[in-house]
């Protein structure tokens, strides 16, 4: 669950990192107006679109074969048997 949360947090913050990198590379980082309400609103909207796209992509990706049931991991004769679909 932590991996999923961190993945979506990274997707949300990606536009902010890209904008900061662009400001740094274009030598516009010293102007305080660059982080005003306009760019922040667009960056937030872009980040939310990326998060929703990631959620849709994760929901539509299905690892289970059709008609298979999940068998959880277990200890069998002292050996660890990982979870699997049967």
Summarize the structure.
This protein has 86 residues and is mostly helical. The protein is built from two helices and four strands.
Radius of gyration: 21 Å
Strand content: 5-15%
Helix content: 55-70%
Number of strands: 4
SSE order in H/E notation? HHEEEE
Q: End-to-end span in angstroms?
A: 24 Å
Q: Topology of this structure?
A:
Layout: H1 2-25, H2 37-60, E1 70-71, E2 74-76, E3 79-81, E4 84-85
Antiparallel strand pairs: 1-4, 2-3
Helix pairs in contact: 1-2
Walk me through this protein's architecture.
- It is a single chain.
- The protein has 86 residues and is mainly alpha-helical.
- The chain contains 2 helices and 4 strands.
- It has helices at residues 2-25, 37-60, and strands spanning 70-71, 74-76, 79-81, 84-85.
- A two-stranded antiparallel sheet has the order 1-4.
- A hairpin with a 2-residue loop joins β2 and β3.
- α1 runs antiparallel to α2 (37-60).
- The longest helix is centred in the first third of the chain and has 24 residues, at 2-25.
Descriptive tags:
2 helices; mainly alpha; 86 residues; two-stranded antiparallel ribbon; two-stranded antiparallel sheet; 12% strand
